[in-house]
Amino acid sequence: MGVQCITKKPKILLVPYPAQGHVNPMLKLGLALLTHGLQPIIVTPEFIHRRIVANVDLNDYQVRFMSIPDGFSGEEGPYDFFAIEKSMENIMPNHLETLLHELDEDDDGTVVCMVIDLLASWAIQVATRCGIPAAGFWPAMQATYRLITSIPEMIQADLISETGKFTNTCQPLLSTEDLPWLIGTQASRKARLKFWIRILDRLTSLRWLLLNSFPQEFVIHDDEYQDDDYIAPPHNNPIIFPVGPLTEPSLTTPKNPSFWKEDTNCLEWLDHQKPNSVIYISFGSWVSPIGDAKIKTLALTLQSLNRPFIWVLAKSWRHGLPNGYSDTVSKQGKLVLWAPQFQVLQHKAVGLYLTHCGWNSTMEAIQCRKRLLCYPMAGDQFVNCKYIVKVWKIGVKVKGLGQKDVEEAVKKVMKDEEMEERLRKIYHRTMGEETSSRVAGNLKAFVLGLDQLQQNSLH
Ligand SMILES: O=c1ccn([C@@H]2O[C@H](COP(=O)(O)OP(=O)(O)O[C@H]3O[C@H](CO)[C@@H](O)[C@H](O)[C@H]3O)[C@@H](O)[C@H]2O)c(=O)[nH]1
């Protein structure tokens, strides 16, 4: 019995926020933790679990996926931000606690830690109640993390109002429109600010924070990099470990656990296109439809550009399309409901990516060395866009979706002969060997810390 206990791997529960851009990096984190002798288990609400199971074979993953009830009916959704928040705060905690007890007592290794997406901060309280050490997970840029963690000071210093707008300009790089919490109506902005402040309160009880980014995001040239100018956490807790970007090459993941069925036909179609000719358009998984008028404008713009394109457009986004659009453009472009994005970006026919600047998409574009046309819409996307355009200079922001604006941006981005080299540099900085070994070292330090904590609690 004793020997059996020793061979059982300690369990580590990973709790992502229920969105594609959060589950994907959490899986990669889980796979990385596997190699450190842990047994990672990803816990999602049932509505997400159902989508994953419908689209991928869970046996392909060495990481376990488990679900907890979310209080939603069995239908597909859509569930908006506040409906999900309500479920996270009121329904999921008790179910997670029950699951934790079951997992702890099932004779297959105890739960030694929880890694909790900061946007799912409800689970921090569950960890505290159950006496399980918790690490936070920040799925995006450190710059956005810093911005969010400075909300209380900004409020205190009267730099932002109660709806989260700048009272005067205090960040040289950002304007009010770029602030990640300014989404929707006045009431929803206030509610989102409250959501973030609650996260900050809970954050203080975390021991560690795993950051899906890299140190010194503002540096592009290697010679400007200073190793000692590392992240200085504002408080002692949590200790920050940059473990990102959690992307494809360093880890052999089968594929992302897609919530929707990937249309792989577009890969064959790409094989018939000229190198660097195709524009790939995708606005990620999380932003709400941008309205019929904008969709119609973009549809006509794409047609007028006379370039081949692949456009990821969910059903709920398609109402504004001109009648018969898909057939009209069939020789020029492909509309897909969901793409195998990483494979599309890897393809040599793809030359440009019109993106919403989600963090995962941004990193995937860098990994595949693709130039970016940026159209940020919500949350951290404005900050990411600033870095893409102003700091790393690997893309251009499109002012609007009309023909003139997009044409201008395409010209600018294609004309920039140094962009290729800058893409190479930022790729090297974020995903090169040195970064990979730093990430491995940081993960090791985190696991060692965890181990030490275990040892101390046994004595
Ligand atoms: O057709 C598609 C479109 C997307 N993806 C994948 O879906 C993920 C999308 O992630 P991301 O680019 O981060 O966008 P969102 O899903 O919209 O992510 C949310 O979460 C991110 C991490 O916090 C934030 O940076 C974004 O702003 C926020 O919208 C990526 O891995 C893509 O490869 C596909 O596989 N197929």
From TrEMBL:
Keyword tags: Glycosyltransferase, Transferase
PROSITE patterns per the UniProt record, alphabetical: UDPGT (PS00375)
Entry keyword annotation includes Glycosyltransferase: yes
Documented EC number(s): 2.4.1.-
Domain of life of the organism encoding this protein: Eukaryota
GO molecular function: quercetin 3-O-glucosyltransferase activity; quercetin 7-O-glucosyltransferase activity
InterPro entries linked: UDP_glucos_trans (IPR002213), UDP_glycos_trans_CS (IPR035595)
Protein name: Glycosyltransferase
Source species of the chain: Gossypium darwinii
